[in-house]
Every structure is written in C-alpha cells, then in structure tokens.
Amino acid sequence: MTDPAAVSYAPIGVVRGPYRRLDGMPLQTAAAAEVDATVELDPRVHGALRDLDGFSHLWLVVHLHRVAGWEPEVVPFLDADRPRGVLATRSPRRPNPIGLSLVGLRAVRPGRLAIRGIDLLDGTPVLDVKPYVPLFDARDGARAGWFGAAAGRVHSVRSDDRYGA
Prior knowledge:
mainly beta; Elongation Factor Tu (Ef-tu), domain 3; 6-stranded antiparallel β-barrel; 27% strand; globular
C-alpha cells in the first residue's frame, strides 16, 4: 500500500460528562446506561441539529484524545486468556484513536445535545454525530465473533478492571 495523505478533522463539539479520569469510567455504553452527559456543539453546526430530535439514539464519532500509542495485539478485558488483534477488539489503543459510541438522545437544546449512556471522558472531542437508524444499523444474523462467549461481563466492567477492551 502506498502512503495515503494525512487526514485531519476539526471537532464539532465536546463531551461534558462525569468521567474526568480513565479509572472507573465504563468501557462501553452498555455499562453506563443511566449516566447522563451533554455534547456541547460548535456554533457553526447549530443549524445541523434540525430534525435530530425525532431519533432515540445517536452514534458519536470521537477522537480518543487521551490514548497514547497502539499495539497490533492487545489482551482484551473480556478475554484475558490470550491476545487478540486490535482490530478484532473495541480497544481504544488503535492505529487511529477514533471512537464510536452509541448513546441515547434525551433532548436537543440550543448548542447542545443531552445524552444518556456515556463511556467517554469529559472533554472528549466529537468529530461527528449520526442518527442511529435500526433499519440500517441493526442486522439480522449478525455474529459477535469471540465477544459472544464473554458478553455477560460487559455490563459490569469499568476501565479500572482493564483498559484494553
């Protein structure tokens, strides 16, 4: 593969939530279903919020600004028996520290989104917001790979257990 050109993005907002440190922060939104937060948005995108209030959930595409470095293999918190390829995990330590969080939308307010179910640090830059559309996003017969055998642990795991999802 030839080297592609570098890519850069300007955040459109920032997460404001209760987690200031990685210790104690949920590693997936399923482990934080009742945790409220907001996304403060840049004024240039305020008009882009039109019609968003009809959705129950949103995908937040974020820059994991506190992640340093990456490895091709990680030992996931759900499967500490062996290393896995990082691209087969939800580890934040990836070639590019881009995160994807599915959150509940509580309200659309001027300049901000009230959300629920957050697994991100306060101050996390938001690159994009997309509506969750079950027709497009849910798949019949979808397989969960190695996660299937360990899924029961996800609701109770926090980052102090292991930050290597």
